[in-house]
Amino acid sequence: MRWKPLAVSALLASMPLLVAMAAPAAAQATNPHTWVASYGNDTLDCAYAVPCATITYAFSRTARGGEITCIDSLDFGAEAVLNRSVTINCLGKTASLRGRVGAPPPMIRIHLPATDTVILRGLNFEEFPVAWFGMVFTGAGTLIVDRTAVIGGSSSRNGILFTPSGPAKLVVTDSIVARHGQDGTGAGIRVMPQPGGTAQVTLERTKVSGSQFGVAVDGSNSTGGINVTIKDSVLASNVNDGVVATTSAGHAPIGVLVSNSASTNNGYGIRAIGSNVTVRVADSDIAGNGTGLATASGGALLSSGGNAVRANGVNGGFTGTEALQ
Amino acid sequence: MKLSIVTAIVACAAVLAFQAPARAQNLHSWVASNGNNANDCSRASPCASFQGAYSKTNAGGEITCVDSGDFGNGIFNQSVTVNCEGVTMATASFFLGGEATDTVILRGLDIDATGNTGGSTVRYIGSGTLIIDRCKLSGRLSSDGGINFTPQGAGRLVVTDSIVAYNGNGSAGAGVKIIPQPGGSARVTLSRVKVSGNTFGVAADGSASTGGINMTVRDSVLSSNANDGIVATTSPGHAAIGVLVSGTASTNNGFGIRSIGPNVTVRLKNSDVAGNGTGLAALSGGALLTFGNNRVRANGNNGAFTGSETLQ
Fold first, then answer.
1. Cβ contacts (< 8 Å) between A317 and chain B: which residues?
2. Nearest to residue B128, comparing CAs of B153, B146, B106, B149?
3. Is A254:A247 a contact under the CB 8 Å cutoff?
């Protein structure tokens, strides 16, 4: 199936307005630590004794670099815009962010200056037909996602859409990303820098399953370059690719390292498309895919050794090897 | 509750027939120990059972648990997520189906079947995808066991970060049993799964289908099962089976790994086979291939590979 680019431009066009709307609230943000609870109320100051109800309100009361935590399991809204450093940590609770009927995508937008870092930990994203994206990253800076579930609905698009317009880093660890996309479009994790953007991405112990595409890396909207490492992770039962990296002539070069990971039971295990794309694979398992390994348009797919490429409809082959050091 | 195939299918049909007009209210439903199925399953007024919540949840929606409790069994046949990470529940069974485009996700379910000798804790009969993550399934002392994956179409199963222990009745039943039905095939990925103390650990059986089984077992532990850590078996003219075992330990079982039948190929990479009665066994033409970096030692009988494969 052909890789179909999504229209990101419409999404990006709506960003300045939303960021502008969120900005005034920051003036009240003085609490280093705020709390939310199922019985919370958004007229309160988000202290433990008087917790708030929604992520948006709690964020407005939280100082830059502060933390929002959950007292109990709750639905705490969505459609939040995070535009400065914050940690949202609800590990051990079910803290659900979800779309609602009539809501525009996505559930959380992260739009940061290059100096800032957002940490999302122990969250549970639920996307539904009305909410196309779990989290969308624009701007610059760093996003860290740990122990988080990003689960799509029956017609959601991307789970994590990483489309920076400046230098940006994404780290996803110990998380599950499942059931995204439909009709041949949409990915669990999609990395696609915009003009002026670069992306440095690390995925570790992350499970990307049951989506149209698993991890899709696309350099065609930028010239800034993309570097992705996927380690100790599982890309399984995605309709199209477990991992696909593609760029077009004159656009961002892409380097992907897949280490000690499994890409199994997908349409394609790993694909490298484009003359500036290099995908390196070490100690990994590529099995049960329609096609195990594939390259197109000059993409390089290099083995660092230790890979099992078997029991695919077509195993395919590496285009070269790399020496371990 | 004992779930036979026939009764469960009948129950499924009855439930669907009854629920069809009333479906599709919630994007997200909640159950709680103090819930009531007359409620709307919101966080503020949760429902009492998984089935009650499912009847009020959109396709692709999610059911979560407010607290620990007894939420009964679930019979689901379309995309849904049940996510109860951090709480425990009384014994429960899930009887699951769905079309090719449906994905059922079970997360964070901590289920002890309390010695129930019938059915299985999670059974899948559909043609779509089942994802099990961070679950604990124990105590189903039946001839099927913990996970019984019996797709009737092109089924896919992904199990990650889970423990499946103490299932089976002593002579039959497995922690994870893969047995596609006529017209069915199975593509299975297990990663970071602990399968211990079962009658059989992971059993792939192609004898009921011609559609094929492809399974990868990775970064997992198959330990102290009475019979096999992993067994793959088919009969002539039935489903071919390919199994890749990578970075995994099969230890202290009756058999470490067994490959039985002319269309069965089991490949081992960077794995440990130790402490079993018999480490490796290939019967009736089954192939058992090594990538050359396995440890097969300290078994009663180490056994041997039938051939080798080259790492790339």
1. 312
2. B153
3. yes
pLDDT at B55 over 80: yes
Which whole number is the average pLDDT over B89-113?
A: 94
Q: Decide if B187 touches A, using CB distance below 8 A.
A: yes
C-alpha A126/C-alpha B108 separation (Å) is 15
Q: Find, among B87, B132, B82, B220, the residue nearest to A176 by Cα.
A: B132
CA distance A83 to chain B (A): 27
Tell me if A271 sits within 8 A of A240, measured CB to CB: no
- DSSP-assigned letters across all residues of A66-133: EEEEESS-EE----EEE-S-EEEE-TTS-EEEE--TTPPS-SEEEEE-TT-EEEEES-EEE--TT---
Q: Coil, strand or helix: which one is A136?
A: strand
How many angstroms separate the CA atoms of A179 and B153, rounded?
19
CB contact under 8 A, A182 and B86: no
Write out chain B residues lying below 8 Å of A265, CB-based.
Answer: 156, 158, 187-189, 214, 216
What number is the ipTM of this complex? 0.90
CA atoms within 13 A on the CB side of B174: 21
> Tokens 């192939």 identify what position?
B287
The C-alpha atoms of residue B305 and residue B287 are separated, in whole angstroms, by: 8
Cα–Cα distance measured from residue A187 to residue A179, given in angstroms and rounded to the nearest whole number: 9
Q: What is the DSSP string of B61-82?
A: EEEEESSSB----EEE-S-EEE
**Four-CA torsion A34, A37, A43, A47, nearest 10 degrees:** -30
Query: Which among A290, A213, A208, A189 is positioned nearest to B154, based on CA atoms?
Result: A290
Phi (first) and psi of residue A22, to 5 degrees: -75, -25
| Closest residue in chain A to residue B156, using alpha carbons only | A237
- Span B270-280, pLDDT tens digits: 999 999 999 99
> How far, in Å, CA of B19 to CA of A55, rounded?
34
Of the candidates A305, A303, A246, A236, the one whose C-alpha atom is nearest the C-alpha of residue A271 is: A246
Let me know how long chain A is. 325
Interchain CB distance below 8 Å, A94 and B214: no
- d(C-alpha A147, C-alpha B158), whole Å: 18
Question: A124-182: per-residue pLDDT in tens?
Answer: 888 665 556 788 999 999 999 999 999 987 666 889 999 999 999 999 999 999 999 88
| CA separation for the pair A187, B110 (Å, rounded) | 29
Chain A residues 54-113 with a CB less than 8 Å from chain B: 72-75, 92-94, 96, 98-101
Q: Say how many C-beta atoms besides its own lie within 10 A of residue B67's C-beta.
A: 18
A4 touches chain B (CB under 8 A): no
A 208-227 residues inside an 8 A Cβ radius of B? 209-210
Q: Is the pLDDT of residue B24 over 90?
A: no
What is the tens place of the pLDDT at every residue in B145-173? 999 999 999 999 999 999 999 999 999 99
B79, B33, B35, B32: which is closest to B54 by C-alpha? B79
What's the rounded Cα separation, in Å, for the pair B113 and B30?
22
Segments in chain A below pLDDT 70: 1-28, 98-106, 127-132, 154-156
d(CA B230, CA A82) in angstroms, rounded, equals 48
CA dist B166 to B115, B140, B191, B255, Å? Answer: 9, 7, 19, 17
B236/chain A closest Cα distance in angstroms: 19
